[in-house]
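We now fix the convention by which a protein and its fold are recorded. Think of the row as the fold of the chain written in a discrete alphabet. Here is one such record, which you should read through line by line.
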Amino acid sequence: RAALDFAKGPEPKKADAAKPADPDDPPEKTGALPPEREQHYFKYVARLSDLPFNAEVRYRVKLGDTVVREASFRTRATPDKAVRFALVGDLANGKDHQKAIAYRLSEEKPEFLVALGDIVYPAGRVSQYMSFFWKTYNDVDAAAPTSGAPLMASVPFYPVLGNHDVAAKFPTVPDALGAYYFFHAPRNGPGVGPWATPLGSDKAAAARFRADVGDSYPSLDAYSFDCGPAHIVVLNSNQSGNVDQPKLRQWVEQDLKGATARWKLVCYHNPAFSSSPQHYTEQSVRLWHPILEAGGVDMVFAGHVHNYQRTVPLTFAPASPKRDKRGRADGTFTLDREFDGEKNTLPRGIVHVVAGGGGATLYGPGLDKTAPLLRKEHGDNYADYTTKMVADRHSFVVLDASPDTLKLRAIDVAGKVFDQITLTKPQK
């Protein structure tokens, strides 16, 4: 019998054919499924209601008389308080880099983390969480570069669904869609619709799955939340890339319009504006840009491309409401090259960041080689919007949001800051 005790207080004392292949593509794409032993595990869920803002909550998990885990976490902050949080994608494929990234994340002491998709490889199965994810982010006695860090004991994770997270198809693969079992998102999204991960035609199997995961389906597919002066919208770019879904579009528009937070951020897995040839033509999320601009979005974060990239502030007017046959979305760019994030901190447009360096195989080469290649291959579909690209090391992003400033730092696997900018905006 498991039990949970909690109280407000201090932390307990420690005791394309042309596009390069994705090396982490799942074997399910070829129809081959790795053999798995039957899995047996228990999942306990405790809902803590009416927690105060700006508080530290101490908890202890017990199994009988044995203390399994004790730690603390921060509750959400009110808009007048500064918050620090991390964003990183493409996290856990069982390689050493992911452990070093988890360790460096723990050094930054974020109040929460946004996982920008492809949380586990190769196919988002429960068995792959058991093999890769928990052993790096939870089942760790002490944080270290070679073992990871028990971040999930004290840091809420907000998931973004990536292509690998839904690569194993349900119900063909019984333990598919592991993210829905292990994460719990705010339940303020538009509900069930074509923007949610499909569950197949077996209605009985789908009903069993939904009973098992509870309200995580379809909450993970579209939701938003506030913490401190930041408002964050999360979308499933696997299904919601096409903006012609009226109910989803209306939900996004109303959510952004109603948000009163100082800073508005959007997170999805596929980047709209990347300077890597890998996944370049997967551009459906570009069609969201006019809505995001109208909604006052300041920054957009994505993974999928396994490196770090940052654009200049930009606006984008799609030439058509549909993608072309190659998957591209052409349009007109306006680039703010005067913004430098240091002396000029007032952006004219949205800054897009790719933070896909969480552990999966890196995508090179660097900008000096990819920009000419993409310009030659794609013409005006590509623009010189990328101002910073680091493709030779794993990395993540930390944001410090205050009522006055939004500060970004990109940090590599060695703990070195290699990019940083500050955003400000006129007072209302």
Observations:
- The two ends are 53 Å apart (CA to CA).
- The first helix runs from residue 96 to 108.
